[in-house]
Fold each of these.
Amino acid sequence: MTGCSSSNMRKTSRPNTHRCPANGIEYRVVSIRTIAHHLKQPWRWDIGARSFFYCEDPDCEVVYFADDDSVITKSEIRTQVGIKSGSDDSFLCYCFGVSKADVLQNPSIKEYVVEQTKQGL
Ligand SMILES: [Zn+2]
């Protein structure tokens, strides 16, 4: 233990993290749906029974990688801009810059965003 305060870093029997083949840093598992949404040609990518992981390093060419060390690089991703600036679940709303932590501290922010969105803002 190194005093990490994050409770989701605990080791389990299932591999929730995997090392990026390019930079060797461990990253968290990501849902297949997220990957398919970002891929240029998702139908050409054989998901199989693999788990996929998301490399957050902005300097790393690898965006997603599987537990068999196959990789999806930036060139295979549709959304070039912003994909490395934040994972899908770290921001609830990109337009207003509202993060999950903000909403936890102040639930009315969520209402605010919903209201603004209704008004077309
Ligand atoms: Zn990487």
Amino acid sequence: MPNPQDRSPMISLRGITKSFPGVLANDHIDLDIFSSEIHALLGENGAGKSTLMKILFGFYRADAGEIRLSGKPISIRSPRDARSARIGMVFQDLNLIPAFTVAENIALFLPNLKVVLNPQEIDNRINEISKQYGLAVNPRALVSQLSIGEQQKVEILKLLLSDARLLILDEPTRVLAPHEVEALFGVLDNLRKDGYAIVLITHKMKEVLQCADRITVLRSGRVAGTLLRSEATEEKLVKLMFEKALSGLKITESKRDESSKPILELRGIETRAEGAGVTLKGIDLQVRSGEIVGVAGVSGNGQKELCDVVLGMTTCVRGEKYLFEQNLTNRSVGAMRRKGVGFIPENPLAMASIPFMTVLENMALPHTWRYARYGGFAIDWKSLKEDIQKTEKQLGFSVNFYAIAKSLSGGNLQRMVILREMTHDPHLIIASYLTRGLDMQSAIAARQALIQARERGAGILFISEDLEELFMLSDRLLVLYGGRFVGEFKPSETNIYEVGHLMTGSKVEHVG
Ligand SMILES: Nc1ncnc2c1ncn2[C@@H]1O[C@H](COP(=O)(O)OP(=O)(O)OP(=O)(O)O)[C@@H](O)[C@H]1O
Ligand SMILES: [Mg+2]
């Protein structure tokens, strides 16, 4: 690949500056984006990546600075302006309409009304483009029935059909299974060959080094550096991001005692699927004090349903659930909370926070009974703050207590939930995709927090798609596929390939 900088840029950002109350999110940022390049944007949580791209997409307006298209200054005041400059963006949270079909979602987005009126024509255009770039989806399928990976393909198709030439993807791999990531990179590679420019925001170093042509690192709202992939190493990028090398994870020995009574026990649990959900069948599970039980699986195979059953957010039609030997089958979430269960859900904005409340108010939510004073008419904010600050010190990351939850960056929201749930030393922790959206430093801190919790005797149910992380942390590893556990291992007695096969439902010839 020749150095893209030998040509003139498709888009140039000059001096882009944007502040929000109390935060300088972008501070005089210069950035060039060329055709036929995948440009990775890296940086710690809150560094200003999403803000910068939302400015380019016309979602926010910069306080100062200039955007040039092929050298000429342009004004982008709205996503509509961005679209006419052929700039498209897929947000961190996808926003398709679930009750509509793929074709309807795409038609809604296309400015050209004539196309909307002819369903056959739009099906043909979808099929044509999807064939060309390996983005196979059925135009007639309902979006609610598509996996996240498929929905993402629809989002990309939407942009291609609307004639975008610059595609901005904000953490597209955050919620993708490993095989979906491979497929996405295949698509991006094809697009690059056809002259598209792609900006890829990600926290995954491997992905950056695998597919980016150039890499820009942001730190505290400024450009810390831009490197060609050929000159980039993980070490250099980490240094640019955090100004220091990262300390590794300290893994201590597990103190689990197999003869001890389990903290959590599920016996023969069965659920009935709601909507497009998965049915759990014959789920037996024990989590003991001092152990991390990993659940490996491709998301959508019952992970959400498993968490819902454990927490009491869904009822089971068969089987029993015990917490500290007490039968709590089909009891409320509150009953579980009061017994010291911490929960880090897969979607913190929808499932673990009230977006328009402040961080501190959100921190109080699951613990209102603990901090209620004067018969429930007041909250003891000072004690709450002190407790959270203690956890911040232990974990080594913090959040702004007075920010509105929905204004937090993706990773900072995840940090908020982790801090809240780790406060009060929960006896049982249900952690779903713990490190999603976290930068490398925070991901290490979050994993370290689980190890600390194990050390003081907590039991942990750890759900993840990241096999490396599962093998690193789990004392026992269960594989979830199609709503059933299809394998149980000690990590030392299996390997990534065996578990990977079971996760995807393919049989393994030799087990053990
Ligand atoms: N609408 C908003 N209102 C107030 N503050 C905001 C808003 N959007 C972003 N911010 C703040 O601007 C800063 C940069 O946020 P941004 O979302 O750009 O970070 P990021 O680099 O994308 O981080 P992450 O990796 O966590 O997604 C953060 O401190 C964030 O809280
Ligand atoms: Mg972001």
